[in-house]
Design a protein that fits this description.
Elements: E1 2-5, E2 10-12, E3 15-17, E4 45-55, E5 62-68, E6 75-79, E7 82-87, E8 94-97, E9 106-116, E10 134-140, E11 143-156, E12 159-168, E13 175-184, E14 187-197, E15 205-214, E16 228-236, E17 239-248, E18 253-256, E19 259-262, E20 265-266, E21 269-274, H1 287-299, E22 304-307, H2 314-323, E23 326-330, H3 348-363, E24 369-376, H4 384-400, E25 406-410, H5 412-419, H6 436-442, H7 447-456, H8 467-477, E26 483-486, H9 492-498, E27 504-509, H10 514-523, E28 527-532, H11 577-585, E29 593-596, E30 629-635, E31 640-645, E32 648-654, E33 659-665, E34 670-676, E35 682-689, E36 696-701, E37 705-706, E38 711-719, E39 732-738, E40 741-746, E41 760-762, E42 767-773, E43 778-785, E44 790-797
Parallel strand pairs: 21-22, 21-28, 22-23, 23-24, 24-25, 25-26, 26-27, 27-28, 37-44
Antiparallel strand pairs: 1-10, 2-3, 2-4, 4-9, 5-8, 5-10, 6-7, 6-9, 11-12, 12-15, 13-14, 13-16, 16-17, 18-19, 19-20, 29-30, 30-33, 31-32, 31-34, 34-35, 36-38, 38-42, 39-41, 39-43, 40-42, 43-44
Helix pairs in contact: 1-2, 3-4, 5-8
Domain Glycoside hydrolase family: 701-788
Pfam family, one: Glyco_hydro_2
Family: Belongs to the glycosyl hydrolase 2 family.
Length: 798
């Protein structure tokens, strides 16, 4: 089928919008919002999207459909006032056929209603509306099915693949041919022709199957993400009826207690959990945004992403395919027991099979997807019904895809407590409309878990160690191909003896535990990797991971807290010191890393979170902080490290667990760390500098040239004359765009009353960011102005 972007000329509640579009990010946040801290104090709503478009009279005998990659939530689709489709879940793609209800030769009205009015319905910020792309499909009535091409690697040496093409609308009186071509760039490197006799199928559907050898093929993995194009051509005699194209990589997975293997090579997963929002853009899923995130994570040392806790966007999967990032794609955060009053638990039993199938069929040809997860911290498997449901979900996935393992993010302590009638997550049965007090109580149903985690801290890692919890969880864990443990690292050393056939990994872990966890990953063959919470910061679950200088408990923080604060990469894409620490532990950074805890809060006690081991960043530029005490953290793989301030030795320390801490009084200039091996030989040095000279606003686009219809990220920061960002001289900025559309402007401040859609925002540790849409060819001018200076940049649109 011919596929075309269908994202222009939409309105939302009567206002013109650019799709993908998040309606929630434009709502006014309030302290009494029903979703509370979980949703970042954003309200929900009902959003009516409309698009008028012309349907040619020449299409009357064609197949016409529209694909929505994601609508949050309770989507209803109408054409010319007639309801055609509904889909409650907001994270899976769905196809709506239009041809049977179209008015040909005239304009038609496509209407989508997204109802996200009932909150809370999630434990994080969801966004609202048509937040993922929309596509239009057009073909002959006889065509290749939507998501009807499956490409399977049968062997790697020599490379051999199997291609299946599902056909629809075929005539039993006719014979068809399917030509399957494999292209490497512009060159066709293999081709096979398959005849399909429709009469043999007995209905209007059939499947063409071919096996193709590619002896010179290059394999796909994280280091060499080689991709090919499969072109499937449906023919009737000499007439071409339809064409489908699929990008794919040739790679084969295997797993055992000896490890996880990609193309026969042992692979350890250096993973990070990621929510679906894109920071200042809200939940809007732009191709550029998803690729940028994957690229930054790859450069930071990650090789795997866990899509938490819902299916990833198609754009993210494409980026992971192209850049070489492994993906653990996850279905749901809840099963039939709700964690919030209006969450997916309301729809689970009616929709889980269709939604799971939609994810697997969409993911099948993406080589980056190496694991399917059927849930996150669900307690249901401790009971008979839940075990039956979990087994059915595993069987469902295997029936559609036997090439990938199935797992689940299992919190052993949560399951053990639930089995004793001490469930941690509330089920949302309280009437939230009876009083404001009750409404506030239920606004964040992660609260009980977060309270417990905050007090127990890293002790939660041992919550699943008892024989009772092991007996409760094992019937479910043994049904999984690979067992995922959320905060269950205490089980790692035990499993080789207790469960010699079990393969495990850390599906969710504390970032500060990376040294201990990675040591075990390298030690135990059955332990295949670690996914920290979280790799990238996110909207909602306000303050769960933040270190705060304003006091309060480190969870369920009050308005105007907005961000989770748990990410080792902030919402703008800036890695912090703990992200660099992980890279050192993974041996992906040979030089020492210097992290500095903020020096601009002298004498103020910081309120810490269990989900963050430090709030240090890579900066030695804290104007106005001369003489303030701070902690300097140095990470390295050497034996010892020396720290120098302005060429004066501060001290020498052993690197324990790849880390050494120094107490230092801030003085502007140069901070230098030199690491040494056990023999005293220098093996690397790093340096941080202070901003010097007059501070000015810097506007720096990540690309000087973009295509019309694309977006561009623009770094806006406060810098000295030497180009160093100043961390302690934040300014209120106004951002203006000429020739383009400002989609979002903001900083990584986790607690603010400012909005991302006003063009006004204060920098945070000297940094802010703008995202600009380029509607047409020409030039775009981006200007940012503070109290004392301004900066600007020009972007060419081609």
């Amino acid at each position: 089928m011919k596929k075309a972007a269908f994202t222009e000329n939409w309105t939302c509640n009567g206002t013109s919008v650019i799709v993908p579009h998040d309606a929630m990010i434009h709502e006014k946040r309030t302290a009494d919002a029903a979703g509370g801290s979980a949703h970042g104090y954003f309200p929900g709503g009902i959003y009516t999207y409309e698009k008028k478009f012309f349907i040619s009279a020449e299409w009357k005998e064609k197949y016409l459909a529209v694909e929505f990659e994601g609508v949050y939530k309770n989507a209803e689709v109408f054409l010319n006032g007639k309801k055609l489709y509904e889909r409650p879940y907001g994270y899976v793609p769905f196809l709506v056929r239009l041809d049977e209800n179209a008015n040909y030769g005239e304009k038609n009205l496509l209407t989508v209603i997204a109802d996200n009015s009932k909150l809370p319905n999630s434990r994080w910020y969801t966004g609202s509306g048509i937040y993922r792309p929309v596509n239009l499909y057009l073909s002959e009535r006889t065509h290749i099915s939507y998501q009807g091409v499956k490409i399977t690697t049968l062997s790697c040496k020599p490379a051999k693949i199997r291609i299946e093409g599902k056909l629809e609308g075929i005539d039993s009186a006719k014979e068809y041919g399917v030509r399957m071509q494999i292209q490497d760039g512009e060159t066709t490197i293999a081709e096979k022709f398959v005849k399909v006799n429709a009469a043999q199928s007995g209905n209007e559907k059939a499947t063409a199957v071919a096996e193709i050898e590619l002896p010179e093929a290059r394999l796909w993995d994280e280091e060499s993400p080689n991709l090919y194009l499969a072109k499937i051509i449906l023919e009737e005699g000499e007439k071409i009826l339809d064409t489908a194209e699929e990008r794919f990589g040739i790679r084969k997975l295997s797993w055992s207690t000896k490890g996880f293997f990609v193309n026969g090579k042992a692979t350890l997963l250096r993973g990070g959990c990621v929510h679906h929002d894109n920071g200042i853009l809200g939940a809007a899923s732009w191709e550029k945004s998803e690729r940028r995130r994957v690229k930054i994570m790859k450069e930071a040392g990650f090789n795997a992403i866990r899509s938490s806790h819902n299916p990833a966007s198609e754009a993210m999967l494409r980026a992971c395919d192209e850049l070489g990032m492994y993906v653990m794609d996850e279905t749901f955060d809840t099963w039939y027991n709700r964690k919030n009053k209006y969450d997916y638990g309301c729809d689970f039993e009616a929709w889980w099979e269709a939604d799971t199938t939609a994810m697997v069929e969409r993911d099948y040809n993406h080589p980056s997807v190496i694991l399917y997860s059927i849930g996150n911290e669900v307690a249901e498997p401790c009971e008979k019904k839940g075990l039956q449901v979990g087994s059915a979900m595993i069987e469902c996935i295997h029936s559609h895809d036997h090439t990938r393992p199935v797992t689940c993010g299992t919190n052993l302590m949560v399951m053990g407590r639930a089995a004793k009638g001490q469930g941690i997550y509330q089920d949302g049965e309280t009437n939230t409309t009876s009083s404001s007090k009750e409404q506030k109580k239920e606004s964040n149903n992660s609260l009980a878990f977060n309270i417990m985690a905050s007090f127990i801290g890293s002790g939660m890692n041992k919550g699943g160690n008892s024989k009772k919890v092991d007996a409760i969880s094992s019937p479910f864990l043994d049904r999984l191909d690979i067992a995922g443990y959320n905060y269950g690292s205490g089980r790692y050393p035990l499993e080789g003896k207790a469960h010699p056939e079990r393969i495990v990994f850390g599906s969710e872990t504390f970032p500060q535990d990376i040294w201990k966890n990675w040591k075990m990953v390298k030690k135990y063959p059955y332990l295949i990797g670690d996914f920290m919470w979280t790799a990238w910061d996110y909207l909602g679950e306000a303050g769960i991971g933040a270190w705060s200088y304003t006091g309060g408990m480190p969870f369920n923080r009050p308005y105007p807290w907005l961000l989770g604060g748990a990410g080792v990469i902030d919402i703008l894409g800036n890695p912090d010191a703990s992200c660099r620490y992980a890279a050192v532990v993974w041996e992906k950074n040979s030089k020492p890393v210097i992290g500095v805890r903020p020096a601009n809060h002298p004498g103020v006690r910081v309120s810490k979170s269990v989900w963050r081991g430090t709030n240090a960043i890579e900066s030695w530029s804290w104007s106005g902080c001369e003489g303030n005490k701070t902690i300097v953290e140095v990470y390295g793989n050497g034996a010892t490290v020396k720290l120098y301030l302005n060429n004066k030795l501060i001290g020498k320390k052993k690197l324990k667990q790849c880390k050494a801490l120094f107490s230092v009084k801030y003085k502007s200039g140069s901070l230098c760390a030199i690491q040494y091996d056990a023999q005293g030989k220098e093996i690397g040095r790093s340096r941080l500098l202070s901003a010097e000279g007059e501070k000015r606003i810097s506007v720096c686009p990540e690309e000087k040239q973009v295509k019309a219809g694309d977006i561009v990220y623009v770094d806006i920061s406060v810098k000295g004359a030497n180009g160093i960002v100043e961390s302690a001289a934040d300014e209120q900025l106004n951002c203006r765009v000429k020739g383009g559309v400002l989609l979002g402007f903001g900083s990584a401040d986790p607690c603010t009353t400012e909005a991302y859609d006003t063009g006004k925002f204060k920098t945070y540790y000297g940094r802010a960011q703008a995202v600009v849409y380029a509607p047409e060819t020409g030039t775009i001018r981006v200007e940012a102005e503070g109290e004392h200076s301004r900066g600007e940049a020009v972007i060419e649109v081609v």
